[in-house]
């Protein structure tokens, strides 16, 4: 009874009810015929990484690539949980161009060094064996393969660490480190993206 009275009062006064956690989320992803989720804001390109990195730089952004595979439960969770949070998607859109490739795919990728190889061979070149793997490219990559990367994140991260992996790269949290230490950065004083 209290709920009915409250709802009537809210409707009468024109005060919106607070959104539930589910209402605040983006629509569920749709699995495409190729077995992947393809958010409409992911970058669609000819997979010329030098060109994609230059375009990202011109837009004041960084280039990131998510490597996935069909049937990957952790990849599915990235799309069903992390990429349904509008705050996560807004942060990624504001600061990154995000590409998606298939760990075992056959599309051609032209690496920063000009070498053209299949998605599968590119993943092999970088030593990627697990999905999801997120490749974060250097601000102005000059070398190919792992030499083009600022950092690599392997495995599933919950939404807050996930978005902060992108913040770590955007804020150059890896600078001055031989081996980037994301966990130390997360524990340190650097400002983090908070998802209450």
Question: Could you walk me through the main structural features you see in this protein, from its secondary elements to its overall organization?
Answer:
The chain has 196 residues and is of the alpha+beta class. It has a single domain (30-187), classed as Glutaredoxin (3-Layer(aba) Sandwich), CATH 3.40.30. The protein has seven helices and six strands. It has helices at 2-13, 49-58, 73-80, 86-95, 119-125, 159-170, 182-187; strands at residues 62-68, 96-102, 108-110, 116-118, 133-137, 149-154. Strands 2-1-5-6 form a four-stranded mixed sheet, with helices on both faces. Strands 3-4 form a two-stranded antiparallel ribbon. The longest helix has 12 residues, at 2-13. It is globular, with a radius of gyration of 19 Å. The two termini are 31 Å apart. Mean pLDDT is 89; it is low at 1-20.
Structural class computed from helices and strand pairing: alpha+beta
In CATH terms, the superfamily is Glutaredoxin
Sketch the major β-sheet.
4 strands, mixed
Task: Tell me the total number of β-strands.
Answer: 6
Question: How large a portion of the residues is in β-strands, by DSSP E?
Answer: 15-25%
What is the CATH architecture assignment? 3-Layer(aba) Sandwich
CATH domain class: Alpha Beta
Number of helices: 7
- Outline: globular
Distance between the termini: 31 Å
Helix coverage percent of residues?
A: 25-40%
Rounded mean pLDDT is 89
Task: Indicate how many domains the architecture comprises.
Answer: 1
The secondary-structure element order is: HHEHHEEEHEEHH
Overall radius of gyration: 19 Å
Order of neighbouring strands in the sheet with most strands:
2-1-5-6
> Runs with pLDDT <50, length 5+?
1-20
CATH topology heading: Glutaredoxin
């Amino acid at each position: 009874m209290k709920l009915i009275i409250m709802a009537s009062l809210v409707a009468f006064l024109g005060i919106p009810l607070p959104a539930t956690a589910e209402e605040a989320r983006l629509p569920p992803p749709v699995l495409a015929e190729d077995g992947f989720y393809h958010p409409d804001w992911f970058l669609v390109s000819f997979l010329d990484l030098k060109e994609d990195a230059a375009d990202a730089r011109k837009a004041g952004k960084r280039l990131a690539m998510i490597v996935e595979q069909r049937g990957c439960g952790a990849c599915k969770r990235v799309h069903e949980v992390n990429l349904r949070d509008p705050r996560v998607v807004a942060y990624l859109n504001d600061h990154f161009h995000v590409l998606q490739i298939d760990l075992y795919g056959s599309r051609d990728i032209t690496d920063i060094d000009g070498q053209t190889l299949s998605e599968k061979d590119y993943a092999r070149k970088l030593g990627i064996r697990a999905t999801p793997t997120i490749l974060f490219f250097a601000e102005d990559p000059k070398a190919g393969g792992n030499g083009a990367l600022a950092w690599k994140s392997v495995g599933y991260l919950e939404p807050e660490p996930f978005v902060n992996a992108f913040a770590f790269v955007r804020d150059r949290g890896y600078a001055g480190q031989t081996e980037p230490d994301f966990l130390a950065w997360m524990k340190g004083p650097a400002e983090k993206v908070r998802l209450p």
